[in-house]
Protein 1
Amino acid sequence: MKPIQDIHCGCEARVSSSRLGGLPLWAVIAMAPLALGLWWLVYTHLKPAADFVTYRVLPLNPGSHWGEALAFFLYDTPKVMMLLVLVVFGVGVIRSYFSPERTRSLLAGKSLLAGNVMAALLGVVTPFCSCSAVPLFIGFVTAGVPLGVTFSFLIAAPMVNEIALGLLYGLVGFKVAALYAATGLCIAVAAGWTIGQLKLEGHIEDWVTRMNAVGGEAVAEKMTWKERIHYGWNAVVEIIGRVWKYILIGIALGALIHGFVPEAFMARIMGSGSWWSVPLAVVLGVPMYSNAAGVIPVVEALLGKGAALGSTLAFMMSVIALSLPEMVILRKVLKPRLIAVFIAVVAAGILVVGYLFNAVWA
Amino acid sequence: MMEIKILGPGCKKCDQAAARVAAVVSATGTQAQIEKVTDMMEIAGFGVMSTPAVVVDGKVMCVGKIPERDEIAAWLGAGS
């Protein structure tokens, strides 16, 4: 079997031992409004600053290809980073209340549908990393979490995450971010429910089914508020440290599209007129193993050039939710037929979302 | 002799956890054997759902994070 270290796994982490020093809790809390105020002040002045640098400091003209591209890059990069810091920190603090063990005990023995909905929602807030997908899958299934419910969790966890939502909100707007979250959760619930109905328990690899339920003494950690803040801050350092290069590449690509691709060019390729644009977007997305950080700046630029919302959402979901490396990892515990069903069901869900929004937004 | 196992499929976090445990072991002069476990079957056998995890003498001490130095030192002290 191929060792996992050959597969790119999104969990390379930078460790920070940065603790909040000897600061008392009240000092940390008192600093919060100050930090937020400063954050807001800088955030609201990013656009004029980017324009100033591009058109005054540098001899570029508004409306020129390079000028448009550079202004876009200089504005979007700090904007996205600042938003991410805020969102990742907030979600990090929320996550400190959840653990896979706790989520598992909440889901064990849950009936279908109610269990699927819960699993999809918990998938958003439970700390999850795709290289622990296999132990997590085994832990869930052996503890009596139904297969379909487990899948709802495994689909929602990587797809609807704080990075995707933060970036979408910052770059494309609230409406698209909310749509993405809502439809992503619906796909997770529907796909998990379908897999549950198909009774595919026999297509889990035999060694998993033979395994005894392992309780796994959940190392229950009671955290103080200060520790939760520390946890949130660690999440910021770790996640931003991991994704900043993808964001830079993504925004640079987006900036070039923004500056050089003619208006309405994408409308012809990824427009809502052609029936094949949604399936094409899904197929193109599978081999692309990028995370949300890299793909969303590109998505923003595509939307700006007239790509249809449905096709774009489909592309984005396919890139994030259907990735080849993850299939290879899951192959260790799932027989080929179950993997095929998983791909088919999720792809079908993405297609429905794509067509739906192309029809509604046309 | 303590037996320490670092569970993890081999992502960077797991390597860092292993390196930190090794550093603390040699700093405290503890007699311990450190083993990296990358096999999914074995990892799952410990009931661990998020990696990296550290197992000391068969007992799961922490999951899903790189332990702090003082935590590791405490486990080493408790066993000897």
Protein 2
Amino acid sequence: MTSFVSLSSAMARGFFRDRTALFFTILFPLMFLVLFGGLFKDAGASKTDILQIGAVPVVDQLPAEAAAGLDQVLAVTRTSDRAAALEEVRKGDKAAAIEQVGGELIVHYSAADAVKSATVRGIVESLVQQANLAAAGVTTPSVTMRAQPVEDQSLKAIQYMTPGLLGWAIATGATFGAALTLVTWRQKKILRRLRLSPVPLASIIGARVSVSIVIAAAQCAMFIGVALLPYFGLQLSDQWWAFIPVMIAGTLAFLSIGLVAGAAAKTPEAASAIANLITLPMAFLSGAFFPLDGAPKWLQQLSEFFPLKHLVSSMQDVMVRGESFAVTLPDIGLLLGFTVVLAGVAAFLFRWDDA
Amino acid sequence: MQPMSPTIKVEELRKAYGELRAVDGVSFEVQTGEFFGILGPNGAGKTTTLEMMEGLRKPDSGSVSLFGESPWPRNPRLLPRIGVQLQASAFFERLTAREQIRTFASLYGVPARKADEWLAVVGLEDMAGKRNEDLSGGQQQRLSIACALAHGPDLVFLDEPTSGLDPQARRNLWDVLRDISAQGRTVVLTTHYLDEAESLCDRVAIMDHGRILQSGPPATLVRDLDAPTRISIETGTLTAEAARGLADGLEVTDDGVSLTIATRTPAPVLSALAERDALRGLSVRGATLEDVFLHLTGREYRA
């Protein structure tokens, strides 16, 4: 037991003092979260830029509620320079320019972007109709429309990106951690030295497992902490904490992958290459970077074979989709089964020494 | 441990790597408390022999017994009783000297306070807070020896502990090694330094091409060689002709720097030189293990 504790602390110290490892395990994935989280923050609600030339009473006199609704779809910039405004539309910088001349609302649009101009024309037309209805004294229309997206909050990019990128970070951290420890300890003869001490092999592996779980927990804390910032606005479900067992099972699965890579590789460079070759394509094919909902059927079926797919989808289920802990159980079982098989392969390939 | 039984017994040990017979029928015994050296040039099979003794390699044939037990396969009963310093210093990455030795000590259940004492023994107290990457070669070797000894083993294996060190660091380390031996531990050391074996070991085995050529206390090996003593004086102090006349059967050479007289009876030659007041630049050199090696292999010793 003492040997397990001291080996764990030696390994943990070695890791947390290694700036490169810290960067690639924690900061690098976090950078992706910050970058994509920032880029796709307004995804799905992108506004159309239009210009308003002079006073347009139909828009200016909208009731507050309607004005706010308009704000969500149109970004209106006011200008008094008619010629410059038309030029901007012609160049495609703005989708349209509107002006009101007496009772006539004119929409200047460019035929170059048919979709955007159609959007603006549709919106402006509805404004005109509302104004006409109001003028005719109709305050409660007989038919109203309410728009309701079929997707829940999960459509927001940060919602699926946080568990996705976190899953990828955990996978990378565990795989590289195990592979590089095994190779460098063998190369630096630390394994040989440990073999000459009465420490059981189980203590060495147990130490690596516990350090990897601590690192995964640190990754989770950083990711969730950053994603919860108001700027990114992650909304966690009620049973979000149920991701913890999934995270542990996932860490074990990728540790076993790393142990196989470390047992097969002779140098740290080879171990990194193998680990990259496994984790990077898997991240793309498992929905860690983008959702697979729109992917071809064969890819969705293929992804079922990857442990990362099960890690990510289970984490999404409990963290943001509002599913309960029970939903993750099959995935946890799969991840643990995967771990047992690969750990067996790693044990078969294990060598204390180079020669 | 039964009295009178040797700590180590090696019988007809053999190990081949493909065509190369790295160890080719080696047998010897090491008694309790002995400082035993395996001496030989690089590639002589010293390290392979040592690794088979430590239980790191399986012999092709032959047997090793430490305290009456076989070290292969990994024998947990034996491991706490032996301490091994590996040729390459095996340290955990980015740990300080104190953390290294405490980690190794705890693998044997030795408390941290006890481990710290070993830093003092090898003179590294001031370096305790430094990471092993920041230690000099000599300091790393001393730390590595301290890590091998932290659990108080009865038997210590040292594989070329001074290789790559400067002369000052080597001599410092020799003092440490003498202390370890003086505490009653059995020490087995491999080295390619003849002076190291001569100065430290109670008994040496001279190894070449996987075989032990001869073994015994260094002084005995040298004495048995019956090699002449070499007396050198500065060239010009005495002519070679005059030197030959000092006594019978002298072998005289003059290389333009020193005039060297080889003799098996140095005393009369020295007094004759003194009488003639011809002692300028005098040096007297007896035979060394180098001469023994030369005699055994017929070739110059090259580490």
